[in-house]
Request: fold
Amino acid sequence: MKLTLVVACALVDADGRVLVGQRPEGKALAGLWEFPGGKIEPGERPEDTLIRELKEELGITVKEACLAPLTFASFAYESFHLLMPLWICRRWEGVVQPLEHSALKWVRAGKLRDLDMPPADAPLIPPLVDLLGP
Reply:
């Protein structure tokens, strides 16, 4: 089974809420809410991928020193196995905007369970609730 490595980030605002984006029509899992991030390109470090993806998806600039690894998810989809490390980021430059998602929303960590998210994201929620509270 093919292993796919994808990085994700929980952006946390001053009120302790986490940003999620809604996958647009035409993409796999369209309509589901996800953490920003994406696939690692060949020869790219995970942190560099995350910095690039946050710029492409949200229009923000993040410095590597502002990324803190929190946890990871390992999930077997039907045709591939996904390994997804999750970083926390509380500092960035610019205004968050939906450049690739159909919508964005800030939610409390405990409310992430109420959203329709990809199944691979479920293991990422409890560490966020432990860190940020419900």
The longest strand covers residues 2-11.
